[in-house]
């Protein structure tokens, strides 16, 4: 861990997760104070039938407003965006979001790798990627891309994860900037918001 | 990933050599698609890939097939099809003749879905379904009406969720891992190549479906295509897009009224 690595002018915090990540999100997002000086983008694997429930649940619990993701919607600081099920979520240089229904990656659509890699290309050192619980290898390549572009990678401590496979895989194949428990992830996000 | 400059060079070369214009495609997705093809084919340098594309028209065609997204399914988003069945088809049914355009139909699963619904609502005999795509090879699949059998269970579920009450297996014959859909469904279908980027309107329609195609275009091209649909749509006709697509950045909102909760708009004035 590089404790001295600091983020300046964070524009986007992108959070990826799979099985077990909803509980983690619900222990983090409701406690982040409004307003935030960046955008939060959430990419989690879920069933198509859950379409609206995740948005509704997070909107209900969080103080920060959830913006519906439609194709080419502007990505603005101060809001939460949630990748819709059955689409890959991509970032355009003009700071809009775009969607793609191409093949699943890592058996997943949305794929965390796809969104992380795409966000890294646009937001570079102004990006923080957080990978939560899951039982799939998605997200590891994405975290590597975020670091390579100058951003910061954070992995949930596998010991605190319902499904440790996904964070473990990232720790095994990359050197994350931070490995944090859920409470520490919350503190970390609050900290960036103060800067 | 390939570099931005490499992608722009490819876009220019393709336009110069083949006249096909990717210039208004959404860059994030296009870049990922091209990077994938480039990596799959094992080229060492991007200029090797470029020169292959320039000099080998067969390879160029294959590359286009690879980078355009052709993912589709029958009764994709069942609640959308349920709304079509319950709310839109009864209105269209009052007309003596129903003209439908599936723009960017890919391998045709949604066209067959529509034909099944029209048949069940007693409207297929007076309908015609135009199905177009830029990609000739997907149109061949669409024409054949032959789809992989492994998908059929999901399609049957979608069909039921979309209000279907018949035995779905009556609509196809299963053989060698494929399902061939009945020819009485395709009798009213007309398939042809059409390029939304450069071609113009070719008829007037009562319903235009273009689902998950606009997401690959930038705002300017979306505007062009939505206006092309507007030119091709009769007053009181319907335009249906993918679940995350919108016309709000593309055309005056006073001309169109969103229908139900789905991505269906009705043209309310000329």
From TrEMBL, chain B:
<feature type="domain" description="CheR-type methyltransferase">
    <location>
        <begin position="1"/>
        <end position="270"/>
    </location>
</feature>
<dbReference type="GO" id="GO:0008757">
    <property type="term" value="F:S-adenosylmethionine-dependent methyltransferase activity"/>
</dbReference>
<dbReference type="GO" id="GO:0032259">
    <property type="term" value="P:methylation"/>
</dbReference>
<dbReference type="InterPro" id="IPR022642">
    <property type="entry name" value="CheR_C"/>
</dbReference>
<dbReference type="Pfam" id="PF01739">
    <property type="entry name" value="CheR"/>
</dbReference>
<keyword id="KW-0808">Transferase</keyword>
<dbReference type="InterPro" id="IPR022641">
    <property type="entry name" value="CheR_N"/>
</dbReference>
<protein>
    <submittedName>
        <fullName>MCP methyltransferase, CheR-type</fullName>
    </submittedName>
</protein>
<dbReference type="InterPro" id="IPR050903">
    <property type="entry name" value="Bact_Chemotaxis_MeTrfase"/>
</dbReference>
<dbReference type="Pfam" id="PF03705">
    <property type="entry name" value="CheR_N"/>
</dbReference>
<keyword id="KW-0489">Methyltransferase</keyword>
<dbReference type="InterPro" id="IPR029063">
    <property type="entry name" value="SAM-dependent_MTases_sf"/>
</dbReference>
<dbReference type="InterPro" id="IPR000780">
    <property type="entry name" value="CheR_MeTrfase"/>
</dbReference>
